[in-house]
Structures are given as structure tokens and as C-alpha cells.
Design brief:
This protein is α+β, with helices and mostly antiparallel strands. The protein is built from 9 helices and 10 strands. It binds calcium ion. Calcium ion (CA) binds near residues 179, 201, 202 and 320.
Length: about 325
């Protein structure tokens, strides 16, 4: 028996590496395909999970395109430009088909997802496809830079959300003071803006125009959901009208959100706002006892909001210092 040379050893290692890589890529590919139809976020999921999940389209199509460009012999014999055209046409067709099939799996068809599919393939074509080396370096660098910018633009909202989630957890029991620029992303109406003209805490508050629209006002959706260990909910509202403005404060848990949103199953209080600052303080025990047939789950408060009752259409309110308190009237 002859001795195994170093070259033979290296060859065996390469073969093993390629086999392991092939198995891993196949398994991940299958998982990605399954996740297109099963699992994922729902209406009640956190915003980080929801946004991160949608980026999975980029990852999946980047991987699938890489596998195609390496293993599909017909494609490998074509020029780089022709490869790009074939792949983009194929991805557009397959991506659209996936979106249509997703409807059968109780998901919504989304053109933005097809665009993400194309972005994932572009990432693969620009950085991983073997044929990329056949075009001029300058053109390749330009294409790569363009793809990187497109991907950064795609990831940016998730980066903002993650940073606001971290800030939100650090600020708690302050739920919203509007001193950081991304806090409006915690609202259900993302069009509302913070305003520097009036504030009771720091320099900014949230400006909420009360239009004639039904339920005109503001909803808070993203904040730390476990309110156990605190005794009061606090919110300051400023209004400039000579006439008092009537609003409703609603607070409810996840059970309420998932079980029909009946009026008798949530905390709801009519509040008359006088001119200037109004400090609203609600004992959490009142919120706990608000549902008629059960107690509110303070571990999973889902959302709260302030909405105008019969608005004139001209009034504006400013909201600031939304927080939980351990003692009445004092922070923490
Ligand atoms: Ca403030």
C-alpha cells in the first residue's frame, strides 16, 4: 500500500468540503422555500420580526441564484449579461408565482416581495456569480456599489426599528417622550410628527391634528408590553382651543385584540381636555378591572390610544410624557 500524498489529502478535503457545502446549501434552500409558505409573522407579531422576515426574500433568492449560476450548465455557457437577463426573468416569473400561491396559504400577495426577490438575485449576480469576472472591473465595481446601496436602502428601516426598540426598552417606564427622532415609528399612524413648539418633558411632543375623520387621534402600538410592577398610567395632553375638547382614552391587552375588540372588554374613558396642559393619570388597577368578564392581562398590554369624540376638524392636541409610574404624580 502506497502512502497518501499531501496532494491526495488536499483533494479529499476539497471533495469533502464541497459535499458538506452542497448538503448545507440544499437544506437551507429547502427551509427557505418552506418558510415562504409556512411560519412567519402575523398581525400581532413584533415589528422587528415582521421586518426581518420580509428580508428573508433577499437571502433566499441570493442563495438560489448562487446555486443556479454555479450548477446550471446551460447558464454557465452564456455571457454574464445574458445570465443576468435569464435570471431576472426567471426570478420575476417564479417570485410572482410564489406570491400568487401564497394567497392559498392565507398570506397576501405582495409586489414588494417580488422586488426583494430581484434584489436578492442582483446581490448574488454582482458578488457571487463566477461569470462576474468576465466583465470589466470598472463596470463590475459600479454594479456592486449600486447593489450595495439598494440593499442598504432595504435594510435601513429594520436598522431604525431595532435602534428604536433598544431605546424604547432603555427609556421604559417612559413609553414616549418624543425626544428621539424615531419614536413616531411606535405609533399606528406613522404620518404624525413630533413638534418642538410645546413640551412638558424635554423639548418635543407629538402633534396630533384632530380631523373630522372617524377615530381621529393617535394609537400607540409598539412599546414594552409588560406593565406589571407599576401602579399608574400617565399621559400629558396640551390643547390650545378656548373650548374644551372631548377625547377617549382606550387601553387594551392582546386578548382583547384577538377576541373581537368588544367595548366591554377594554379600558375606555372619556376625558374633557381644558386649554393648556392636562395631566391624565389612570391607576393600573382600574385598567385591570375594566373588562367585564375577566381581568386585563398587564403582562401583555397590546395598544392604547387617544381619539376625538365629535371633532370640529380644526383642533390640535400635543401629547408628551407618556409613562408608567409607581407612585401617583412622580416618575417611577
Ligand atoms: Ca417630550
Amino acid at each position: 500500500m502506497g502512502r497518501i500524498s499531501n496532494q491526495d489529502n488536499m483533494h479529499m478535503n476539497n471533495v469533502t468540503f464541497r459535499a458538506v457545502k452542497g448538503v448545507c446549501f440544499t437544506l437551507i434552500s429547502i427551509l427557505c422555500f418552506i418558510f415562504l409558505f409556512i411560519g412567519g409573522p402575523n398581525y400581532y407579531s413584533g415589528r422587528v420580526f415582521t421586518q426581518a422576515w420580509s428580508l428573508g426574500h433577499i437571502f433566499a433568492f441570493c442563495l438560489w441564484t448562487y446555486i443556479l449560476t454555479v450548477n446550471w450548465k446551460y447558464l454557465a455557457n452564456e455571457t454574464y449579461i445574458k445570465q443576468c437577463l435569464i435570471i431576472f426573468c426567471l426570478v420575476f416569473f417564479v417570485g410572482s408565482l410564489i406570491e400568487i400561491i401564497q394567497i392559498k396559504f392565507n398570506r397576501t400577495a405582495c409586489i414588494a416581495d417580488v422586488i426583494r426577490d430581484l434584489k436578492g438575485s442582483a446581490l448574488s449576480i454582482a458578488f457571487l456569480a463566477p461569470a462576474r469576472r468576465t466583465i470589466s472591473k470598472a463596470i463590475l465595481r459600479f454594479a456592486q456599489l449600486s447593489v450595495v446601496l439598494i440593499i442598504i436602502f432595504e435594510i435601513y428601516p429594520l436598522a431604525i426599528t431595532i435602534s428604536d426598540e433598544v431605546i424604547s426598552k432603555l427609556q421604559f417606564p417612559l413609553i414616549a417622550g418624543f425626544e428621539t427622532p424615531f419614536e413616531t415609528s411606535r405609533l399606528s399612524n406613522s404620518k404624525l410628527k413630533r413638534d418642538g413648539s410645546v413640551a412638558i418633558e424635554g423639548k418635543y411632543s407629538l402633534k396630533v391634528p384632530l380631523t373630522k375623520k372617524k377615530y381621529s387621534g393617535v394609537g400607540f402600538k409598539y412599546f414594552p408590553k409588560n406593565w406589571k410592577g407599576y401602579n399608574y398610567f400617565h399621559m400629558s395632553i396640551y390643547q390650545t382651543s378656548a373650548n374644551n375638547i372631548n377625547v377617549t382614552l382606550k387601553i387594551y391587552d392582546l386578548i382583547h385584540a384577538k377576541t373581537g375588540r368588544n367595548y366591554n372588554d377594554r379600558y375606555s374613558k372619556n376625558i374633557e381636555l381644558k386649554r393648556g396642559w392636562n395631566n391624565i393619570q389612570v391607576p393600573l388597577q382600574e385598567i385591570v378591572n375594566a373588562p367585564i368578564d375577566r381581568t386585563m392581562d398587564l403582562n401583555h398590554i397590546h395598544a392604547f390610544g387617544v381619539h376625538a369624540i365629535d371633532p370640529s376638524g380644526k383642533d390640535v392636541i400635543y401629547i408628551d410624557d407618556v409613562c408608567l409610574l409607581k407612585q401617583s404624580g412622580t416618575d417611577e
